Amino acid sequence: MFVPALTGLGAPDWDPDARGTVFGITRGTTRAHLVRATLEAIAYEVRDVFDVMITGDWRAGCTLRADGGASANGLLMQLQADQLQVPVERPEIMETTALGAAFLAGLAGGVWSSPAELAATWRLGQRFEPQGRGDEGHDRWRRAVERAKGWARG
After folding, report:
1. How many structural domains compose the chain?
2. pLDDT digits (tens, 9 = 90+) for 37-53
3. What is the value of pTM for the model shown?
4. How many angstroms separate the CA atoms of 110 and 117, rounded?
5. Neighbours of 68 (CB within 10 A)
6. Which of 3, 62, 101, 119 matches a 20 to 30 Å C-alpha distance to 137?
7. CA separation for the pair 38, 20 (Å, rounded)
């Protein structure tokens, strides 16, 4: 279990004294195990924030749209769908920061007439449906987060 609190913990834990930790390693731990733990940590962190923001009936109608470099990892997108229990959609064009800058310039220059016209250009690349929650892993994650808290205070 990897807790990436390299500069403390943000939402929802808010602990600037937390520090990054790796729990559960053995002499059989490989690079692949650490990579998987890192991907799981991303999914668990997003779940923690999502659980604070989206509750009850709201979750039923939710879809998460993911973009950027990490969204290229299909395993991460599936882990995210499983943890959130909502579909995760990845666009055809994943590098939307650069695309967004181009869109804004085009909007200002009159290439596009409205933000709605820009929104209509979004195209689904792949959709990841929830397959199972994996609460046991998230429970271990929460225990690891609690152990990482306050570390810098001693």
Report:
1. 1
2. 999 999 999 999 998 98
3. 0.88
4. 12
5. 11
6. 62
7. 11
What sign has the CA pseudo-torsion 79, 80, 83, 86? Answer: negative
Q: 41 CB contacts (<8 Å, ≥6 apart)?
A: 1, 2, 3, 4, 141
- Written as six digits, the tokens of 87 are 């579909």
Task: For strands 21-22 and 2-3, give the pairing.
Answer: antiparallel
Range of the domain at 84: 2-153
Q: Whose structure tokens read 């998230």?
A: 138
Given a contact cutoff of 8 angstroms between Cβ atoms, the answer to whether 46 and 80 are in contact is: yes
pLDDT at position 10 over 90? yes
Tell me if the bond preceding 87 is cis, omega within 30° of 0. no
Rounded to 10 degrees, the C-alpha dihedral 64/130/60/119 comes to 30
Give the CATH number, domain containing residue 7: 3.30.420.40
Give the pLDDT confidence of 92-139 residue by residue, as tens digits.
Answer: 999 888 888 899 999 999 998 999 999 898 999 999 999 988 799 999
For the beta carbon of residue 114, count every other beta carbon within 10 angstroms: 9
Distance CA 143, CA 126 (A): 33
What percent of the chain lies above the pLDDT cut of 90? Answer: 79
Using DSSP's 3-state secondary structure scheme, residue 96 falls into helix
